Automatic annotation (TrEMBL):
Residues 19-133, 147-264 form the VOC domain. Gene3D superfamilies: 2,3-Dihydroxybiphenyl 1,2-Dioxygenase, domain 1. This is VOC family protein. SUPFAM superfamilies: Glyoxalase/Bleomycin resistance protein/Dihydroxybiphenyl dioxygenase. InterPro entries: Anthracycline_SecMetBiosynth, Glyas_Bleomycin-R_OHBP_Dase, Glyoxalase_6, VOC_core. It comes from Streptomyces heilongjiangensis. Signal peptide: none annotated. It comes from the Bacteria.
Amino acid sequence: MTDARGSTGPNGGAYPPGTPCWVSLMVHGMDATQEFYGALFGWEFQPGPQQLGPYVRALLDGREVAGIGQLPPDRHLPIAWTPYFASDDVDQTAATVRHCGGTVGVGPLDAGEAGRLAIGSDPTGAVFGIWQAAELLGTDLTGVPGTPAWDELLTYDTESVAKFYEVAFGYEERPVASPDPDTDHVTLHIGGRPVAGIHGMGTALPRDRGPHWLTYFETTDTDETARRVLDLGGHVLTPPHDTPQGRVATVADPEGAVFALVHMER
């Protein structure tokens, strides 16, 4: 993780290609999930495109910050937050993903008037989305509690997958300075600004999950929000702790979707 998401989407027009622009969660219990995140982050909800089944957009102060959809009852897929990366041409980006050794499992397809999307995975299996904006540019509010703050890929090692993301999305890779020479951590930059990270964890990567993207959500008090997760039926996986970027905790909602909380010192 680094100091800033670096996106220019909210209040500034379309997100530059490659920038994380949206996060979406597919679950089995839509009502219970909305109750959890509504109580945790103060989100309200309105219907969104139904091309992939029931779907709502989460709103904070009337502005779109995330999406939640319902998995078909016969689909036993991992419950996980998925970041979407902006693209000017989702069909071309999807073709590049395939050419670089990734897969495209959904789409490209139209999401009503909102835009066009695809869902793919990198060569190690980490799932991500691709978003070509039309009416929905992406997350419309950042930098306040309850909004996405950062997306980071947790994988075995950065070298094995960084080149894929560089070619597929046009990132510039930069190592993260650390006093520990064994730290395997890079940031991905667009236009000179950090937009996402890759953290190589080696054998510390959870075997039951494999490589995956982790979304951080902003909070005013990491400790209090982590306690609130527990009160609402979720789980604390990594207790709150201080990092150079702020106080961080890793948690999971009642269905098991993992996400991180961060209070950034600004």
